[in-house]
Amino acid sequence: MKLLHWCTVVPEGPSSLAAIRFAKPVRVKCIRIFPSGGKPFEQCPDIVGETEPDSFLLDVYFNAQPVHPSSDSKEKQRAANALVPTTIAYAGGQVDCTLDLGTEYATRLMIVKGQFDTLSLAVYGEIVSETIIPPLSAEEIASSVSKPVPTPEKRTVPASIDPAHSSDPTFLARNLLSLLEESPPLSLISRLMFCLKPDNDDWDDPDFPYLYVDFDRDIFQTPTNIEDDDETLNSGGEDDSHFDIEAVLDAMSKPVSDDLTEDMLTRFAQVVADHMESKNKTQASNIAKLFKLAACQRPSLALALCQAIELDTVFDVETLDTDTLLDLLDASSNADIARYLHTADFMDVLSSFLSSPHSVSQPKSATQAAERLRTRLVSWEIFEDALSNQHADFEAAVAFLRDIGSGEQSLGIWLDSMTGHIDLVSKLMENPQTVTSLNRRYPKLFVRNNANAPMFTGGAMSHDEFIAFVRAFIGVASVLSVWAWSDSLGDDVCRERTLGVLRLWQGTEEYREIVNYLLILRQFTLRLKWIISNDTPRKSGIFGEQILTDLLDEPLAALNDDLVQTVLSLKQPLSYIPENDRLSMRKIALVVEDGLPAAVEELAFTNTHPLSYRRLRILRVSIALVERELKEDPQKGDWNILQTIWDEQSMAFVPRLAELVAEIAQDLNGYFRIVSPFPAQQQSHTQPHTATTSSLPQVLSQLFPLTEAILALLIRLIKFAEPPSLSFSISAYTLRSLVLSVADVFTCTDEVGILYAQGTPASISAQSAHQACIDFLQKASTFGPGRILIEPQGGKSGAEIVMSVLLKNDVGMSGRDPAYHLLRMFTLVDCILPDPSSGSIAGEDMAEKEDGKEDQEEHWVLHVLPNLLDETQEFFRRLDVESKVQLLRRLVRLDSKGLAGMAEYLFDEEMKLLQQCTKTLVSSAYLSPQEETNQVQKIVLQYQIGQHLRLIGDMLRTGSDMLEWCLRTLKDPELFTSLSAALSDLSTTQIVSPHLDAVTEMLLLHYNDESIHYDDDVKLALIVLLLRTIRLENDPAKNLDIDLWSKAIGVLNTLSSENLDFTMFRQIAGQALAVFGSSAFDVELSPPRSGVILSFMTWLTSQPSEKKLAILCGIKADSLTDLYDALSALLPMEQHGTLDELRTKITVDEDEVFSPDDMNIPDTLQLSLQELQDILSPPSFQSTALPSTPSRTIVPDVLGLVISPPAALLRSSAATGLTKTYSNNDFRELRQATVARQNTSRLPSMHVDDFEVNPVAMMDAFPPLFHTQ
User: Fold this and answer.
1) Contact present, 416 and 190 (Cβ < 8 Å)
2) What would you give as a GO molecular function for this chain, any one (predicted)?
3) Alpha-carbon distance 298 to 256, whole Å?
4) Is the pLDDT of residue 233 over 50?
5) DSSP structure class, residue 1012
6) At what angle do helices 732-755 and 653-671 cross, to 10 degrees?
7) Distance between CA atoms of residues 1007 and 989, nearest Å
8) Model pLDDT, residue 385
9) Distance spanning both ends of the chain, measured CA to CA
10) DSSP state of 51
11) Quick one: pLDDT band at residue 153, thresholds 50, 70, 90?
12) What is the pLDDT of residue 1200?
C-alpha cells in the first residue's frame, strides 16, 4: 500500500462537491484526514493540514470500473458509471478510514461531499495494472500458495487500564477524573451518581457538589448561629423535640461531610432511636429508607444507626411490604447493615413472610424482594469469606456480585463499602497483586440454567482469579461513575477518554461481560441515547454507537426496556452504525417491545440458509424472551407460552425448537466440511460488519450461544420436575433428531477449538456450547426424578434413544473426517454412561441421592444396554484400541454385579474376530501364487491382528485396572478357546509383534491350571511364541527372566506330546539355544539361569524319539558347544552328569530348511488412495483365463468335418432340403406349442463380456479376508 494522492480540496457549487481524479485505475485502501495544523509528512514540514471545521459528515463516492470487463457486447456498450458510496464521520484529529472495495473493481474518480470548508486528505492504495499477466511457473505457483495463518496470540490489557491486576482498582477512575478541573473525590462522585441523585437545582448551586447535610438546621432544627457545647450534644435536650422523620429523610439525600464529628453521628442515631413508636408500616418504611440513605454515606453513620435501633422493635411480618423490602435490599449492599440484618430473628421474619398466608395477599414483587434480601444477606458472608479463603464458594460469591450489579443503588452502596470500609479494603489489599498472564481466566456472571455448569471453561476457579474479578468489577464501576459525572457536566474530553476505555474493555474477554452487564443500568442506556442523538460527529458519539452496537449482541441486554427505547430512537445520519445495522438493531428492539407474541412468530418463521448474522441475533433474543416469561412467572409461564402459540402460530413448540437445532447443525456442518457448500465468508476486519458482510467468526459466535440457549430452554420445558408441573413432552422421533443435531454441534465445537485462538469470541462460545451439549445429553438420558417426558409413555427411555443415536452416528454423514467424528461420538458416549466411581454431593439428602444413583445404574444395565447389543458391538469394532479399553472399563464399572455381561460379550466377540483373522492369515499361506491374496489386503489383515493383540496386551499389562477382570473373563472356556485357537495359528506363522510378545508373557506368568484351562495346543503355542521372542528380543536381560521361564518349564512338563506337531518347535528351540550360546549374548548366565536352560534341554531329550526334538535345527554345532561350555562353568558339580548326558543325546541338523522371513505387524497403517480403492473394490478376475469367442478366419479349414454354407445359400429360394420356409404365423404357433414351453433345466445364456464385468456369482464364493476397523 502506497500513497496515491495528497491534496486539500474545497467544495464547489451548490451541492458542495469536490472531485479527485487519478491518472490510472487504482484500488483505494485507506483515506487519511489530517486536522488543521497537522503535518502529514515528516520529510515535508512545509505541508500542513487545513481541514475546517473540526467535525462534519463526509460522503465519499467512488466510480467503480471492472478490472476484467466481460467480453459480452452488451457489457461493452454499457457505461461504467456506477458509484460506490461510503460515509466518514470526522470528529477532529487525524482519522483513518480503511476501505475494502474488493479485487474485481478499480476506480479513477473519487467524489467527496459534505459540510466542510477545506479538507486535507491522503489517499493510500495500489495501482491496478492493465497489462496481461503472464502465466506463472510451477515454482511460482508453489511459492504463491497461501500458508496457514498463524494463530494470533491472546492480547493482554495494558497495565495502565487493567484494574484487575492492580493493588488499587480505582486508580484508573481517579486518573480519568483528573482530566476535569478541580475534580471532587471519587467517593463523592460515586455517591452522587449512583445513590443520592442530586436535584436539578443542586447542579446550579455554586458550591455544588460540596452540598452537605446540615444536621443542626435540617435534622435537629436548631439555629445555625448557636454554638454547640458538650452538654447540648450529648443530652439531646429540647432541640430534639422538633425531630421530624420526613425532614430527616429529605435532608439525608445530600452527602454527609467527612469533617463531621463521630459524636454528632452518634447523637443523630440516638435521636432516631428515641423517637421510635410502636410497630407500624409507616415507621418500618421510614427506617428502611433511612438505612438505604445512610448505607452510601460515611461507614460510621450506618454503624451508629445499627447500634442504636433494635430490629425487633421495627420489623415483623405485618410491617413488611414491597417498598420496605426493596429499600432494605439496597441498604443490605452495605457490609455493616448486612451484618446487622443477618440475624436469626430477622431471617425468621423473612422466612415467615414468605411462607405465611399474609404473603398471599402481597404482590409478586414483594415475595421476590424478600427472597432476594434473604439470599443477599447470606451471600455477603460468603463473599467476605472468599476474599481471604482459598477454598471458598467462589460461584456463590460471583452470583452475589451479579445481584449487586442489577441496580444502581446497590452498586453504588457496595462500591462505597469496598472502597471506604477499612476491613474490606484491608482484606482485598492482603491479596498480592497478580501478574498479567495470557492464560488468565475470569468467572462468568451468567451461568445458564444449570447449577452444575462451570462458571467458565477450564476447570475450577482459583482464589487469585476471583480476586482479579472483584478488582475488575470495582474498576469498571468506578470508571462508569466518572463517565456519568463527566457526561452530566458536559466535559467532552473526560467523557471521550472514559468512553474510549469502556469501548476497549468491551472488546476483551476479561472485561466484556462486566462492562455490558453494568451498562444496561438505566442511567447509562439513557446517556448513550443522549450522546448518539447529536447530529455533529463527536468521538464520544462514535464510541457510544460502537458500545451500543456490541451491547445489543447480548440477548439479556437487549431485553432491557430502556435500551430498547434507545435503539428505537436511532436516526440517520449516524457516525458509525450503517443503515443495514440500524435496521437490524431496530428489528431486535421491535421484537422485544412486542414481547412474547413476536418471539413466537420469529421462532416459527421459515429460515433461509446459511443463517445470517442478523437472523441469528433475532433468534437469540426470541429465545431469551421465552426464557424470561418462564422465569418471571414460574407458575403460569408455560401456560402463557402455550396460549401465545395457539393464538399466534399453530405449531408444536418443542419440535420447532428441535428443528432450529437441526438447522444450526446443518449450517455448522456446512462450514466445517472438507468442501463447504456455502460461499466464502468475508474476512475483512477493517469495517463494521453489517448483516450482509459478517465474517465467519462472528457468525460462529452467534450460532453456538443460540444452540446453548435452545438446549437450556428445552431442558426447562420438557424436564419432569417434582412436584409435577406443566411440562412439554417430546416424541421419540423428535428426541432422536435432536440428539443427532446436538452430536453434530458438539463435533463442530472441537473444530472451532482447533481453528481459532483461545480467547476469541468464536472459541469462547464454542467451549461453552461444548459443555452445554454434554449437559443436555446427560439430562436426556437421566432416569428417575428429573427425567424428560417422552411420548408415547411406556416406550423407549431417553437413555436408550440417546445411546442408540450416538452408536449409529459413529462415522456420520456430515462430510467431515469420519475417524475424527467417531472419536467425538465416543467422547459423548463416555460422558453419558453413568459412572459409579463419581462421588455424590454430601448433604442431608446424600442417602436419597445414592439410592437414585443405584436406580440409574440398574436401569442402564438391565433396560438400556441389552437392547443396544448389536449397535454397541458395531460401534466397539470401529474404535481404536485406547477407546476400546476405556469403553470396556466403563461397562465393567457400570455392571459391577455382572447382571448383563455387556463387556464380557464385546471381549468375546473381539476374540472371535482375532481367531477369524488369524485363520484367514494361515489359510493364505497355503495358497498358490495364482490364488494368493493381494499384498495390501494382507498388510491390512496383519494390522488388524496387531490391534486385537494390543487390546489384550493393554488389559493384561501389569498395573492395569483391567487385569483382574480380564483374567476372570478368560476363565470362560468358550472365550479362551477363541484366544487359544488364534495363538495356535500365530505360532505356525512368522508373525512378529511386541503386542503378541506381551500377551504371551502375561499368559505364562498367570498360568494356573485351576483358573484358566490351558490345553496342550495353547501350551505349545505359548512356548513357541516365547522362544520366538527370545530369538528377536533386543533386551537380552529380558530373555532369561527367571519367573517367566519357571512358568514356561512348568508348562512344558505338563504337555502331552502324543498328538502335537513339533515341526515349528524344533526350529524355534534351536534358534533360541543359538542365542544363548552366541558370543553377542552379553547377559551373565547366573546359576539360576543356567539351571533353567538345562531343564529346557533335559525336557527336549525326554520326549519320544519320533518327535525328533533332540535333533535341533537353526543352530550350529559350534554354537551348541559354546553353550555347553558356558553351562559347565556355572552349573554345580552334581548337574555336570546331566549336562554330559545331554551332549550325547542332542544333535544338530544344519541341513534343515529354514522357514520364510518374519512378518512384522505394523503399529500404524498407511495406504495410498489407489491401494484403499483396490481393497474396497470387488476382486478383479482379469488374471484368470476367461472364455472368449474364437476369432474367425477367412481361409476355410479344409480338414474340418463340416463346412457351413454361406448365408446367401441358406436364404436362397432354390434351397429346399437344408432349410424350412415358414409363412404367415407358422413360427409363432410353433413357439406357442406346449412342447416348446417345457422346462429343460438349462441355465439362461450369458455372454462372456457380461460375465467379465459382473462377476457377482464368483465373489460370493470368497469370504472377506479382513474386517474394516
Assistant:
1) yes
2) RNA binding
3) 7
4) no
5) S
6) 30
7) 23
8) 93
9) 54
10) B
11) very low
12) 44
CA–CA separation, 999 vs 947, rounded Å?
Answer: 12
Q: Which residues pair with 1125 in a beta bridge?
A: none
What pLDDT, on a 0 to 100 scale, did the predictor assign at position 1011? 63
Contact predicate 860/800, CB 8 Å: no
678, amino acid identity: F
Cell of residue 858, nine digits: 440398574
Cα 773 from Cα 710, distance rounded (Å): 11
Residue found by looking up cell 437413555 in the block: 799
d(CA 1183, CA 312) in angstroms, rounded, equals 104
Q: Are 863 and 797 in contact (CB under 8 A)?
A: yes
**Omega within 30 of 0 (cis) for the link into 1036:** no
Res. 1261: pLDDT tops 90: no
Q: CA angle, corner 157, sides to 151 and 159, nearest 5?
A: 140
Q: How many CA atoms lie within 13 A of 111 on its CB side?
A: 14
* All residues at 6 or more sequence positions from 334 whose CB lies less than 8 Å from its CB, including other chains: 295, 296, 302, 413, 414, 416, 417
> Residue 752 in contact with residue 700, Cβ under 8 Å?
yes
Cα four-point dihedral sign 397, 479, 525, 581? negative
Report phi then psi at 65, rounded to 5. -120, 130
- CA dist 288 and 283 (Å) reads 9
- All 3 cell numbers of residue 186? 471519587
Question: Degrees (nearest 5) of the Cα angle 918, 920, 925?
Answer: 95
The helix/strand/coil state of 56 is strand
Helix-helix angle 492-506:539-551, to 10 degrees: 30
- Residue ranges with strand state E in 99-244: 105-114, 119-127
Least trusted range by pLDDT, from 62-76, 274-288, 484-498, 1236-1250: 1236-1250
For residue 694, the one-letter residue type is S
Sequence-separated contacts (24+) of 997-1003 with Cβ below 8 Å: 997/1025, 997/1029, 997/1033, 998/949, 998/953, 998/956, 998/957, 999/949, 999/952, 999/953, 999/956, 1000/1025, 1000/1026, 1000/1029, 1001/1026, 1001/1029, 1001/1044, 1002/953, 1002/956, 1002/957, 1002/958, 1003/956
Distance (Å) of CA 147 to CA 153, 154, 817: 18, 21, 22
What φ, ψ does residue 88 adopt, rounded to 5°?
-120, 125
**Where does the pLDDT of residue 1016 fall: very low under 50, low under 70, confident under 90, or very high at 90 and above?**
confident
CB 122 within 8 A of CB 32: yes
What residue type is 112 in one-letter code? Answer: V
CA distance 495 to 324: 36
What mean pLDDT is predicted for residues 308-333? 92
Tally of CB atoms within 10 A around 896: 11
Q: Characterise 719 by phi-psi region: left (phi > 0), alpha (psi -120 to 50), beta (else).
A: beta
- Which residue type occupies 467? I
Residue 225's pLDDT is: 43
**DSSP sequence for 1024-1040:** HHHHHHHHH-S-HHHHT
Report, as an integer, the average pLDDT of 485-490. Answer: 92
Would you put residue 989 in left (φ > 0), alpha (ψ -120 to 50) or beta?
Answer: beta
Displacement of CA 834 from its chain's centroid (Å)? 21
The pLDDT value recorded for residue 409 is 94
pLDDT band at 1139 (very low <50, low <70, confident <90, very high): confident
Exposure string over 1137-1160, b if 16+ CB within 10 A, otherwise e: eebeebeeebebeeeeeeeeeebe
Structural contact between residues 968 and 1011, judged by C-beta atoms closer than 8 angstroms: no
Strands (E), 927-1006: 991-992
Question: How confident is the model at residue 142, as a pLDDT?
Answer: 44
* DSSP notation for 149-165: PPPPPPPPPPGGG-GGG
